[in-house]
Amino acid sequence: MTPHEHTLPMKAQADTDTLSGVRSESRARARDFWELTKPRLSLLSVITTMVGYLSANPPQNGAVFFACLLVGTSLAAGGAAALNMWMESEADARMVRTRGRPIPSGLMTREAALSFGLALCVAGDVLLWLKVHPLSGLLALLTQLSYVLVYTPLKRVTVWNTTIGAVPGALPPLIGWAAAEPASWTLGWILFAILFAWQIPHFMAIAWMHRKDYGDGGFKMVTVVEPTGRRAALEALVYTVVLVVTTVLPPVLGLTTWWLYGLVAALSGVWFLLGAWSFWKAPSDQRDRPARRLFLISIAHLPLILFALVVDRWFAM
């Protein structure tokens, strides 16, 4: 074997190692961008948009139209989340649960996050406008503007940020509802009200569980300004009552049946109400466990009633 022939396997191995390193770096970079979109929060927007669309008794558009709705909403929601991370990167660096995010951890520059977020927002809005419905595109834009330019800065200014921030969080069902072009918007606005009311007890539980982090980050959450948790627990209870009342409006108005959606909404609502009541009546030094229980109940409650609503509208009405 000549010296040249001896080096060939070594060179091939080096090339393979280099290619493997490039691929690993690319995958890591893709994961950073993926995390920037807050996938779990964005998924909620996509699911509620889908529910709004499928609840419109039922829509008649094809699979391509439906795919454009979901992709457009995913891009729009992911872009807004990326811009939120860009704006809050300094605060994220001071909080234990967020300091590992791409920007504060140094894995991504703020400039890259800003460009990525803006690109996703524009792509999602344009896709919804051109391929779904202009009103869907406008509602997506309104969601982004209210989330990024209103809610995000208000987190440092007032304890009302959670209530105000519930508005953009409740708009996605209307994006789907507009896409279906139904004759009546009654159920669409009920879905908006359900999402709005649901967010308050959900986020009050989170605010209590992570109250130290929010304080370190400089956010004026209710649990930071009023550290006993009494006000947060009261707001959670009041809005849970509003949520329970709102969720039973569809069968009351004849928009769903009582025996399917109505039953699920009533039983799940009582479960949610019991969780909020436990959170409210617990002493300040014993609220951690009820807060976590309320959080878990809220996570189960929303998909349960939304799934029951879609099934009822498609198969029971």
Describe this structure in words.
The radius of gyration is 23 Å and the shape is flat. It has helices at residues 3-36, 39-54, 63-87, 89-94, 110-131, 134-154, 161-170, 172-180, 186-209, 211-217, 222-225, 230-247, 249-252, 258-281, 288-316. By secondary structure, the protein is mainly α. The chain contains 15 helices and no strands. The mean pLDDT is 93.
Quick structural overview:
The protein is mainly alpha-helical and 317 residues long.
- Taking the alpha carbons of the first and last residues, their distance comes to 81 Å
What about the largest sheet? none
Helix content: over 70%
Order of helices and strands: HHHHHHHHHHHHHHH
Q: Low-confidence spans: pLDDT under 50, at least 5 residues?
A: none
Please tally the helical runs, counting DSSP H or I stretches of 4 or more residues: 15
